[in-house]
Design goal:
Layout lengths: L9 E3 L5 E3 L3 E2 L7 H13 L3 E3 L7 H11 L7 E6 L6 H15 L6 E4 L7 H13 L6 E4 L3 H8 L8 E5 L7 H9 L3 E5 L11 H10 L3 H11 L3 E2 L6 H7 L9 H8 L17
Parallel strand pairs: 3-4, 4-5, 5-6, 6-7, 7-8, 8-9, 9-10
Antiparallel strand pairs: 1-2
Pfam families: Aldo_ket_red
Protein name: Glyoxal reductase
InterPro entries: AKR, AKR5G, Aldo/ket_reductase_CS, NAD(P)_OxRdtase_dom_sf, NADP_OxRdtase_dom
Amino acid sequence: MSAITTLDGSFQLHNGVKMPYLGLGVYLSENGKEVIQAVEWALEAGYRHIDTASIYKNEEGVGEGLRHSGISRDDQFIVSKVWNADQGFESTLRAYDESLKRLGLEYLDLYLIHWPTKGKYKETWKALEKIYAEGRVRAIGVSNFLQHQLEDLLTEAEVVPMVNQMEFHPYLVQQELLDFCASKSIQYEAWSPLMQGHIFQLEVMREMADKYGKSIAQIVLRWDLQKGVVTIPKSVKKERIISNADLFDFELSAEDVAILDGLNRGKRFGPDPDNFDF
């Protein structure tokens, strides 16, 4: 793994595409001024990776923020996801085109299956493989896939997913899943890295933040990167967006990484990929 020393750094996906290891998540960011500003502030601060999804209903605003930023499209890494109701072969192809239209883009850098919808995700994956084979997307992957779902997908996949975006934080490390993804060269990515705010209540986090002279959020996000996990903290506040990127002037010791790993309790704050009903 390359040294994690700059905001413009990246991890290389198994097809050679470089994915910036820090991005801005825009879940729950309101379409219009709120998300436009968040995207502009992030790009101004040096972020190049923006993660959205059709279900977030803010792709238009993200696209506007990208265009206003003045940052060349070649230097942006833009991600969206196909929603569960759109899964299936033809409907996924349509959903991809609709996301591009809303974003005002000609291609995405990464397109993900948002959830492993039973009986549908293999057909959905075939659609992603088609888009990828046609050169209309630079990389394809999945989100919220556990090991058994990945193994099932791989029985028929022609292309191994390049990314698996999962709920990931000190209470939900899922080291076996991390190791499985690594064995298949699937890049792991974190959503909800701050445990939906619960991370700020932990005494051990306060102590570690004091030790390094950093914020609790910065400690956790640095831990993500040192674990080889791409992370996309979400915020619509300018100072928080800037602060979340201030991760490159310190390094957690191996002992402190192990302490954070040891907080694991298999606890989810979001839905269970084995038991969701949407």
